[in-house]
Design goal:
36% of the residues lie in helices and 20% in strands. With 214 residues, it is α/β, with parallel strands linked by helices. The chain has one domain: Aldolase class I (TIM Barrel, Alpha-Beta Barrel). An eight-stranded parallel β-sheet has the order 1-8-7-6-5-4-3-2. The N and C termini lie close together (10 Å).
Amino acid sequence: MEIEISPSIISSDLSHLYEEIKKCENAGAGSFHLDIMDGNFVDNITMGPDLIRAIRKNTNLRLDGHLMIERPDKYYESFINSGIDVLLIHYEAPININELLGRLKANNIRYGIVINPDTDVKKVFKFLDRAEILLVMSVYPGFSGQKFIESSLNNVREAREFIDKNNYKTKIEIDGGIDDKTGKLAVDAGADILVSASYIFSNIDENIKKLKSL
């Protein structure tokens, strides 16, 4: 099985967005990860729909919108309309997640579930039959450059076992502190997609190829 690499655009040189995207594509990236933060759910503010539209114009790869926001139920349509392909919804968001996922299903909107490092993955098993992606955070969301939390691999292992046992198509993605060493640990635990930020953009061609070879 080939590992998919999903560069986190927020760590790119946004003043050369087109060139950075094309370098990632040429090196073998399979998708792009968009960190969307509102300053409330996490202590950081990043991109909104306008920047997402600019990214969309420059690539045909899948765009995953990681909604680190308090009200994904209120704002998800604006992100879909700006070009996001898959919405990644935090289990920890202070909303009725069952209601939101029901709405997404009813409108044929692709989605995934995200869990923080201290969330027991079993809590989201009931959502995985229809979720395209399970994103396991290996740092606490908010800022790039944090140290990989190795205990998060337990969530990856448990999810891998559950998904395989039930023949679900859900892909396991991991995000936070991913480089060639921690990426190898994640792949060995059962991850399908590696999200990487500062590591990739320090040497796009070389480091995407390293991650793909794990």
